Amino acid sequence: HSVVRNALFCLETAANQKENHVYTKALLAYAFALAGNREKRKALLDSLEEEAVRKDGSVHWQRPGKEPEADLPYYRSRAPSAEVEMTAYVLLAHLTSQPAPAQEELSFASLIAKWISSQQNPNGGFSSTQ
Fold this sequence. Notes:
Helix content is 55%, strand content 5%. The protein has 130 residues and is mainly alpha-helical. The radius of gyration is 16 Å and the shape is globular.
């Protein structure tokens, strides 16, 4: 359909920009995963992996220039909702793969899921309704 084709062309143009924000890359990776564009999806996920924050056996993404959190013994702050969202989009991009994701991808996805689950509040929800 021409509308979808034009929308994908617009997304490809945006993906080819040199300086995309990590949140934009996460959204684009998921969009290309849904569209079945394996090459763009992989390129974006590879780029995102370079920007990943690996900590305590988990993986997540945060906004560039964010100050590191203080490492306090009995206090664990929750990440801002935008960081939970972009990390969730990266997880969706990893799991939305045709054919099914490879074992390596599933292993990496489990590290992302670990971080996301650590962001839940005591009621099982998150800081954002999204």
